Amino acid sequence: MRSVSILFGIGVILLLLAQSAPAAVIPADALVEFRVDAWADLGDGPYTTHVVAWHDTGLFLNEGDLFALSASGIAAESPAGMAGGGRTPDGSGDYVLGDALAPYVPNSRYALVGKIGTDLGDEFLVGSNFSGLANDTGLLYLGFNDTSYRDNLGFFTVSTAAVPEPSTVALLMAGLIGLALRGRA
To answer: pLDDT tens digit string along 58-114?
Structure first.
């Protein structure tokens, strides 16, 4: 009887956590793909001086939403860079402050980077694979981390699929805890 009370208490806590957590906007049965070109015309905008370098994915996220991205492809900062084999979405690793679309993201030069919303300073490294929580509310933008775009070549193909909503994870955890407690009784 005590294990049932414990299970009930844990289930209530997990259910409350699941109801308070934000839900992802990505449709549950959708695989969404984006093409992120390395080449772009330079321009000015509200969130970076290279606004057209950010690819608007059209995907809206709420702060705290869990999402995952997977990227492939080859892009380069110049024809010479492409002749040398180009860059994967993970980039070259190094960067020079002020010489990148997202200069404050460590190890992100010529890499695929992202940002949510239009605030400066909250960019993040996407690379070949990213999974995490949205750090802001707004549209998801992706870009090739460089500042001179007119000589860039190539593109990255980025895909995302729905991740389990927090309520699904909470129910799964409650079930596993219940099975574990039942096995002990």
So the answer is: 889 899 989 999 999 999 988 999 999 999 999 987 766 656 666 678 888 889 999
SS (H, E, C) 5-63: HHHHHHHHHHHHHHHHCCCCCCCCCCEEEEEEECCCCCCCCCCCCCHHHCEEEEEEECC
Task: Confirm if 157 and 72 have CB atoms less than 8 A apart.
Answer: yes
Q: Which residues pair with 68 in a beta bridge?
A: 131
Return phi, psi of residue 9, to 5°.
-65, -45
Helix (H, G, I), strand (E, B) or coil at 87: strand
pTM: 0.69
- Between CA 138 and CA 49 the distance in angstroms is 19
Taking alpha carbons only, the member of 123, 141, 165, 154 closest to residue 22 is 165
- The sign of the torsion formed by the CA atoms of 142, 146, 151, 153 equals negative
